[in-house]
Design goal:
Elements lengths: L1 E4 L28 E5 L5 E5 L5 E4 L5 E4 L5 E4 L3 H8 L1
Antiparallel strand pairs: 1-2, 2-3, 4-5, 5-6
């Protein structure tokens, strides 16, 4: 699960997925600053695109994102899809 949120806060700028699985910007041109991801435990986290220091693939076909401070978020989506979110 992914959505995009602009710099004006939650709700404003929340977007749905576009047909090519990239976060779609709502109400403004270009990609949003944040990507909202749902981890395997169901927690949602808004991640600034520039804050992701590494992305990798898990053994079961999911992916992980490494954030500042070493925090890791594991998602059930493929590495290719996660890379599309961050592009």
């Amino acid at each position: 699960m992914v959505s995009a949120v602009n710099k004006h806060g939650s709700g404003a700028g929340t977007a749905a997925m576009s047909d090519d699985s990239r976060p779609a910007s709502k109400g403004g041109p270009g990609p949003s600053r944040f990507v909202v991801v749902r981890d395997r435990e169901g927690r949602r986290t808004a991640v600034a695109r520039h804050a992701v220091s590494a992305v990798g693939e898990t053994e079961d076909g999911g992916s992980f994102l490494v954030l500042p401070g070493g925090r890791t978020i594991v998602v059930d989506e493929t590495l290719d899809l996660v890379m599309q979110w961050l592009a």
